[in-house]
Amino acid sequence: MTVDLLLGLQWGDEGKGKIVDVLTSKYDIIARFQGGPNAGHTLEFDGIKHVLRTIPSGIFHKDAINIIGNGVVIDPVVFMKEIEGLEKFNIDIYNRLLISRKAHLILPTHRLLDAASEAAKGKAKIGSTLKGIGPTYMDKTGRNGLRVGDMELVDFKERYRTLADKHEAMIKFHDVDMQYNLKELEEEFFAAVEQIKKLQFIDSEEYIHNALKEGKTILAEGAQGSLLDIDFGTYPFVTSSNTTAAGACTGLGVAPNRVKNVFGIFKAYTTRVGSGPFPTELFDEVGAEIAKVGREFGAVTGRARRCGWLDLVALKYAVQVNGVTELYMMKGDVLSGFDTLKVCTKYKYNGQEIDHLPFNIEPENVEPIYVEKKGWKADLTGMTTYEELPSELKEYIEFIEKELEVPVKIVSVGPDRTQTILK
Q: What is the pTM of this model?
C-alpha cells in the first residue's frame, strides 16, 4: 500500500484539520509528521469547535489510529492539557494515540530561550509563536535534544538537567530582562512527563512499514503551510521544520516511492500571521471585511491574520514543490458578496514581469499583477452539491485549475465538516 499526504499550500491556517477530519473515514492511520504546539488544527461538528495542537486530526474517529511522528516536537505540558480537553468526549486516547520514540521534547527552558531570543531581536523579530519550537529544532540539529524515548531511560532527569543548564546560560547571553520561576515550570513539566509515559511509545518507522505491508491505508498530516517551510518558505520568516511533502518522508520514515496522492489545501484568498512579506496583502476595507467574515484569528495564538487576494504565483510554486495531485479550496463562502475579486497571476520583479516565486518577495522588490474576476452574491453555506454553486464561483475555480494545472476536488463552504462539497 501507499501513503497519501495532506499539506497546506500557503502560510498555514488553510483548514487542514477540517479536511483531515472529513477524509479520516477512508484511512486506517492518521500520522502527523512535523511541527509542534504552534499548530492549531480546528474542527467543527455537532455544534462544537475543537482545536488540536499536537494530536492528529483523526482522533475523533473511533476506528482510526493516530500517530505522532518523529518529525514532531512535543511540549509535555501542552500535550497533556490537550488530552485532558478531550476526556469529556470519551475518546480512547490510550489505544488510539501512538507516539514515536524519536519525537523531540520541548523543555520549559526551550520556551524561555525562544522568548529571550525574540526579545533580543527587537524590530527584527520574525514573529515566533514563542512555544519553544525553534530552539527545540536547533537542539535536534545540534545533536543536543531530548526525545520521547529518553523518558524511558533511568538517567532522564540527569540528561534534562544538563540541557536545561545549558539553556539558562544561553538566556543570560541574550541579556534581556526576563522574570521566570524555573522550579515551578519544571514541576509542571515532570508531572506531565509521568502522565505521557502512560501512553504507547512506538518505533514509528517500523510500525508504519509493517502497517503498509499489511495493506493499511495511511494519511500523513502536515502542520503550518508550504510557504513556511524552513528551506522553501519565505526565509527567515518561516517555521523550523520542513512543511512540504519531503518533510513527510523524513518526519515519518516513509520512503519517497511510498507516497501516492498529495492533497494540497488553500484558501480562496490568502492570509498570513506574524511578520514576513505578503505581496497581495490588503490594507483597506476589503481586507478588513475578509478578516471579519472569515474569522481570521489564530486558533492557538489568537493573533489577527493579515488578509489579501489569492496569490497564484506563490500557490503554483507550492504545487510544484509538493507535487500536488489534488487541490482542496477552503473558505469560498467568505468571498460571497464582493462585486469584483482580484487574483495575482504574475509579479513585477525588479522591473520585469515574472510568473514564478523569486528569491526575495519583499515589497521593495515585488509588485503583484492582478486579473479581475466577477464575484458572486449567493450564500454558499447551505449548499451541498457542486451544481448548486453560482456560475461565477465555478468560473473562479476553473480559472485556478487552468493556471495551476491541477484539479480542485473539494470546495469548503463553511467550518462544519458537513459543509464540504465534493467536485
A: 0.91
CA distance linking residue 421 with residue 423, whole number of Å: 6
pLDDT tens, position by position, 257-291: 999 999 999 999 999 988 899 999 999 999 999 99
Annotated catalytic residue 203: no
The whole-angstrom separation of Cα 201 and Cα 212 is 19
- pLDDT 10s digits, 360-384: 999 999 999 999 999 999 999 999 9
Residues facing residue 32 across a β-bridge: 68, 221
Q: Are 332 and 413 in contact (CB under 8 A)?
A: yes
Catalytic residue among 4, 21, 41, 311: 41
**Entry field: residues in the chain:** 423
- What is the chain's mean pLDDT, rounded? 92
First to last CA, the chain: 25
Task: Please give the C-alpha separations between residue 300 and each of 179, 266, 320, in angstroms, as whole numbers.
Answer: 24, 19, 29
Question: How far, CA to CA in Å, does 284 sit from each of 11, 274, 281, 303?
Answer: 21, 18, 9, 19
Confidence of residue 244 (pLDDT cuts 50, 70, 90): very high
Which is catalytic among the residues 13, 114, 139, 333?
A: 13
Judge whether 13 counts as a catalytic residue: yes
Query: 411, 421 in Cβ contact below 8 A?
Result: yes
